[in-house]
Design goal:
With 497 residues, the protein is of the alpha/beta class. Helix content is 35%, strand content 21%.
Length: 497
């Protein structure tokens, strides 16, 4: 029986076998994706039973998406999970003058939480809804610590785990922790300050969180340790994080080789680049997931390759700051596993795939060393490989039913060619029509289960405006907001209101 998508209950698993069909299906064979013309996908109770043509068994319902691509859900391992503050730096430089680093006066006065507990919980929920709207089914959340007292809290991540269960998003998470932070001593001069015991306490709390939360909400929630940045981490914190990840059987994510400030700071502290420092300590392994590698040397990349470290490539946020992974194709040739992340607003993975394709070809000086399919692989198979999940990132019998459906009849994508090339080079998250996570319909026609995104967007903007109003006290010399973030052009208002 053919039924409409609207007949499926949003936020629930349909009972019995469900067959999805469309003009194109991304199947899987011999370790790689395959395109099936007018293919079928059948799932039940969160598991894929069949991918191919002409399913021979009985089904409870059939949903025909027409001119669309049925795809594995996208995997985002640096998934924006707050109200993005990096967008404030797009046209406002230098970062040290724009509240991106704590001035000494703010640090000595005592940093504080700029959001309430309720606001912190809300922004995770809103961000998770944005991920689902963009076809992302698995996420490892990332948020800024610039506006935090120190690290992230257990309470907000307990709320985040519940939000993932209610909205229907697969997550790998725990509160971020750190042993140090950067302090602005004078214009342009930043130094790290450390409180190792605070970092170790944060790790302890994160381990406890993972032990309690892993497997909740039908196994949508699993743990990943998240030390903040390599320049804010001590050797003891890294050693204990690695040991905890081994004991827990989970991964840990560490941002490194991602910026000039970090590279210079780590060289002053340890006499080498961050990957070399960690390699000397025996801390590079396949347990480590490392965004962004935009400042990685050839030696760093060789160490990633030999030790099985996965890179998380976030091309949009990097390119906005004038840096790129050099290069995607070269890293693949070294044998480095590459996953994808968003890390900024909009949380649009398809946009990131396009930026990744373009920046790779610019760096390579050639168009033939990377294809659209290579970026798509990173957002699916690469993410699953980084997580150690053979049942994610592809559509085949026995895999979890994490599925994204992308429309191919959008007028701005006409004419279409190969469906993967079409969505990577001409698509955006706005063409996402439906998302199933573990067989549950989490998003349908721009509606997300258990959250009114239009209403939440109004709340998000009000909350963000409140944060911006606090920037003067944590910016050098305390200038007004109008000087920190001036408008693109002079603003004129009606004198009569």
């Amino acid at each position: 029986m053919t039924v409409s998508l609207q007949s499926l209950a949003l936020g629930e698993r349909p009972s019995g076998r469900t067959l999805l069909t469309a003009s194109w299906v991304v199947g899987h064979k011999d370790g790689s994706h395959r395109l099936l013309k007018n293919g079928d996908v059948v799932f039940e109770n969160g598991e894929i039973l069949f991918v191919g043509h002409g399913f021979p068994g009985e089904v409870a319902r059939r949903v025909d998406f027409g001119n669309a691509l049925i795809s594995p859900g996208l995997i985002d391992l640096d998934a924006l999970s707050d109200l993005d503050t990096t967008i404030l730096g797009i046209d406002n430089h230098p970062g040290w003058a724009k509240g991106r680093v704590w001035p000494r006066s703010y640090f000595e006065a005592g940093p504080y939480e700029m959001y309430s507990g309720e606001e912190l919980a809300f922004q995770k929920r809103f961000a998770f809804g944005q991920l689902l709207l963009n076809g992302i089914t698995t996420a490892a959340p990332i948020a800024s610590l610039f506006y935090r007292e120190w690290g992230e809290t257990v309470a907000e991540f307990e709320a985040a785990a519940d939000a993932a269960g209610e909205l229907g998003l697969r997550v790998y998470l725990s509160p971020a922790f750190r042993s140090g932070g950067m302090v602005l001593e004078e214009p342009g001069r930043m130094v790290p300050v450390f409180d190792e015991e605070r970092g170790l306490q944060g790790l302890k709390e994160a381990v406890s969180f993972i032990e309690r939360q892993t497997g909740r909400h039908g196994d949508l929630v699993r743990g990943m340790l998240a030390p903040d940045r390599v320049e804010t981490s001590t050797l003891a914190l890294m050693q204990r994080t690695d040991a905890a990840a081994r004991d827990l059987g989970c991964k840990f994510r560490l941002h490194m080789a991602q910026g000039t400030m970090e590279v210079d700071t780590v060289r002053k502290l340890h006499g080498s680049t961050a990957p070399v420092w960690l390699a000397r300590a025996g801390l590079l392994s396949d347990r480590l997931i490392a965004p962004h590698a935009t400042n990685a040397t050839q030696e760093d990349l060789a160490l990633y390759a030999v030790n099985g470290v996965s890179i998380v490539h976030c091309p949009l946020v990097s390119a906005r700051s004038g840096s790129t992974l050099s290069s995607f194709s070269a890293c693949r040739q070294l044998g480095i596993n590459i996953a994808m992340g968003t890390d900024t607003a909009p949380a649009d993975m398809l946009m990131n795939l396009l930026v990744g394709l373009i920046t790779c070809r610019i760096n390579d000086g050639a168009p033939d060393r990377v294809r659209s399919a290579d970026l798509f692989d990173a957002a699916t198979l690469g993410g699953a490989r980084a997580l150690g999940r053979s049942d994610l990132g592809h559509l085949s019998k026995g895999a979890r039913a994490d599925i994204a459906v992308f429309d191919l009849d959008d007028t701005v994508m006409a004419p279409s060619v190969d469906p993967i090339t079409t969505i990577v080079t001409g698509g955006s998250g706005k063409i996402t029509r439906a998302v199933f996570v573990d067989g549950r319909l989490s998003m349908r026609e721009r509606q997300v289960a258990n959250i009114d995104m239009a209403r939440a967007r109004i709340q998000a903007q009000a909350q963000f405006d409140g944060l911006i109003a606090k920037y003067p006290e944590r910016s050098w010399a305390n200038p007004p907001v109008s000087e920190i973030f001036p408008p693109s052009y002079p603003v004129e208002v009606n004198a009569n209101g």
